[in-house]
Structures are given as C-alpha cells and as structure tokens.
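Retro notes, item 3 of 5
We never archived the inputs for the zinc ion complex last cycle. Fixing that now. Sequence and ligand:
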Amino acid sequence: MSSEYIKCPECRNCLGLDFIGIQCPNPLCGFNFDGLQGFIDEGKDRLLEMAKERKFSVESTDYKLLGLALRYYMYDYLVDYVKCTWGAHYQTIYKQIIHRYLDDPEIVKKLLLSDVIKSKNIKESKSGCKIFWELYKSLYGVQSSEVKVFLVKEFPVFYRKLKIQKSFDSTRQRLLL
Ligand SMILES: [Zn+2]
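Structure as it came back at the time:
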C-alpha cells in the first residue's frame, strides 16, 4: 500500500500524487518533482539498496527525490519491519529507511490501527492504536520529532516507562564510571 500523497522536501506542503513529474505549486518554492517517477518505478527493494549505497550528496536533487520515493513506500517498509523475522533484513530497513525517513505520524497511525500489529502484550490507546513495547521503543528512536510527539500523546504510559528506563540507564552508567 503506497502513499496517497507526497510532501514537498522544500516547503513541506502535502501534495497529491498528480504533482509527480511537475513542480511544487507553491510559488515561493517551485521544487521540481521531475524524475521522481523514475525512482518510484525502481520498486521498494531496489530503493532500499539505493538508500544503503548513499551515492547522492545530501544537498542534491537526486537525494531529495530518493527520500520522497522511500517515503512513498514507507507503509510497506513499516509492515516489512514489523512482520519480518530475519534480523539482518529488518534491522537494515530500520537503519537505512525508517530511522531517517519516517516523519509522518499519519503513516504510523495507519500501521498501528492495522491488523499487522500482533503480539501477546499489546497496548491499545484511546483512539484504538495498538503497539507493543519493543515497537514503541524503536519507533520512538526515529529522527522525526513529529513521530515522537505522536507517540508521547498516544501512549503516555510507555513514554513514562521509557523515561524511567533512560534515567536508570544513565544512573547505572554513572555508577559504573
Ligand atoms: Zn514546495
């Protein structure tokens, strides 16, 4: 299930998929989405390889287009991450894609509302989102503050648990030094 919109990497506006191949309509922005379809057509497995290769410089347009293509398939990567039992593979998906590119709380919400989330120890939020502790910790570890804010609001008990664990870890580290 691919994304139904793209977010402009320059002005952060949400745009419909019909903007793929043309320019951002924001007159102050004008980011050109030309070439994005080519990246999307590579498919999610090849795009994962491209993310690993890191051949584009962070400032380049190709880097931004690759990021957009990775976000286009983000839901699928998240499902793979949750379902995959092969450690080397799901760790690569997390390290190369989810950690850096997951920045849309709506996609996280869609995942947590789906039946992909199965575990013996499920925590359900008031809005019906389901999560388990290990998944909470890894999703909270992404770079995006929007995703963190969503998780704090949705699962306040897990957030407190995380804070307690972190302060315990740092106290233990201080004592060991
Ligand atoms: Zn824009």
